[in-house]
Amino acid sequence: MNLNFLEFEQPIAELESKIQELQLVSDDNELNIAEEITRLREKSTKLTESIYADLTPWQTVQVARHPQRPYSLDYIQRIFTDWDELHGDRAFGDDKAIIAGIARIDGRPVMVVGEEKGRSVSEKVSRNFGMPKPEGYRKALRMFNMAERFKLPVLTFIDTPGAYPGIDSEERGISEAIAQNLAVMSRLRTPIICTVIGEGSSGGALAIGVGDQLNMLQYSTYFVISPEGCANIIWKTVEKAPLAAEAMGVTSSVLEELGIVDETIPEPLGGAHRDPDLMAERVKEKLVEQLDRLAQEPIDGLLERRYQRLMSYGNPG
Amino acid sequence: MSWLEKIVPSVIRTERRKGESKVPEGVWKQCVKCNSSLYRPELERNLDVCPKCDHHMRIGARRRLDIFLDEEGREELATDVTPVDRLKFKDVKKYKDRLTQAQKATGEDDALVAMRGTLKGQSVVAVAFEFAFHGGSMGYVVGERFTRAAQVALENGIPLVCFSATGGARMQEALISLMQMAKTSAVLERMKQAGVPFISVMTDPVYGGVSASLALLGDINAAEPGARAGFAGPNIIEQTIRQKLPKGFQRSEFLLEHGAIDMIIARKDMRDTLARLLSKLSGAPA
């Protein structure tokens, strides 16, 4: 089994390995091999198109968690210039599950805050697999307040399995840290654009997710509890996670319908990891466009709109 | 009661209720902590606090507000907000049916009751979670009622008091529930900026999305003795870190020690303490 492909993508994986085999022998320079490769490539594209045209919510969850999916740092490198990372909450420590810093997008200075899962095993460990502790959220809060002082728009990238459930998290007040961010973001006097790039899990995601604009990448997911957690509570087994994902409506299409998500950014065929450069380009284009639009709104009007939008969540009709 | 139930001895009837106390329902109630059999009328006079071991038992939202507010001049708020099943959520049961079941069992239409009234003559808005309704979970109705109650407090410049008892956000309303965290936090922030007091009293238990929003945003955060409150439930933490949790973890005494709450308030002192605090915060003469 090819680990670069998810289980439901195995038919694509088989085609791709055939193409690779043929490429190895193609030195013989026989025309029909080249033709065969082209034919298989087309077949592979068609197959990917048909599989991705009809992903189940659970399959989307798997794409959102794909080990090769671009993370916050991958986007930061591709989208921004003059990136200066800033560290620490000034009270306890520096939580590497949340990265923050000042950078430029299209020449304009912005504050960037993102959850980062980490790529290599050691990096994953040092970043706690993208599960922030209170000091991570307090670092984010410090950046939000600084952004307000210096009139920097805030761009956040959401990608976390959740806030860290541990003894130390509870001792240092993880609930209060999350709650404080929700409160402050609701009235921060600078535009805030939030983008779910992978997995938006519950309060740990929302804690950097309150703003004027909420984007989701096409195959990212956003839920109040992980499908596994939901399945465990209702069906008493994680095996039913696919059913839970279905019931909760974790994808951008459902959340757009509910009026929670504003825009879905289309992903390259087969997911963002197939072409991170193209994906980053699309995200950048969207962010620049949204920043331009929000910058034109007088700040008081922007804040009132943000507040009314929060007040409307869940209103029937 | 049907004729059949009448002739079946009461002992058999009570035994059929699985998981409930062995003491016959009615006049006697067993304390879940010290197992003492308690005489109900006496227990009620003691505000459902065990006279033997001081265990603060869970009480419903209406009773909570009843023992907190002055008797005169109460007005229930936001009763026109009613549950909607936007997602048509279905697991082993339909969410719609779960709602109906909870409504029948509790007599409430959702998990939050909001009232305007007075506390020792001072105007207040008070809200209480109904834990017996779907684990006191916060979906649209709870978030919306809380928010409307806070708006009444904000517009009239009168304090808001919240008694929480909840498992967290309601799964069956998925992201709509999550967004109630942002909504309630936003209205509380407006109160904060306007200098209108909010006192949050956590009662057993307070977890998840409610803990990570409105319950910890009080100008003053308090808890009843022995109440459990935290972000992640003890089971989830134990599964994550693969070790046993220390004794007293996430109890109100733990929260006080770690600086999450200002004070622990016994139920019998609730009215006096909150009235004293609020009169000072609103600058009223002694």
Note down, in words, how this protein is organized.
The complex is a heterodimer of chains A (317) and B (286). Chain A has helices spanning 10-25, 31-52, 57-64, 72-79, 121-126, 134-149, 167-171, 174-185, 202-206, 227-234, 241-248, 252-257, 276-296, 299-312; strands spanning 81-86, 98-105, 108-115, 154-160, 192-201, 213-217, 221-223, 263-265. Chain A has 317 residues and is an alpha/beta fold. In chain A, strands 1, 2, 3, 4, 5, 6, 7 and 8 form an eight-stranded mixed β-sheet that branches. In chain A, helix 6 (134-149) packs parallel to helix 8 and helix 10 crosses helix 11. The longest helix of chain A is centred in the N-terminal third of the chain and has 22 residues, at 31-52. Chain A is globular, with a radius of gyration of 21 Å. The model of chain A has no long low-confidence stretch (mean pLDDT 95). Chain B is α/β, with parallel strands linked by helices and 286 residues long. Chain B contains eleven helices and nine strands. In chain B, the strands form two sheets. Chain B has a seven-stranded mixed β-sheet with strand order 3-4-5-6-7-8-9, sandwiched between helices. A two-stranded antiparallel ribbon of chain B has the order 1-2. In chain B, 46% of the residues are buried. Chains A and B meet through helix 7, helix 8, helix 9, helix 10 and helix 11 of A and helix 6, helix 7, helix 8 and helix 9 of B.
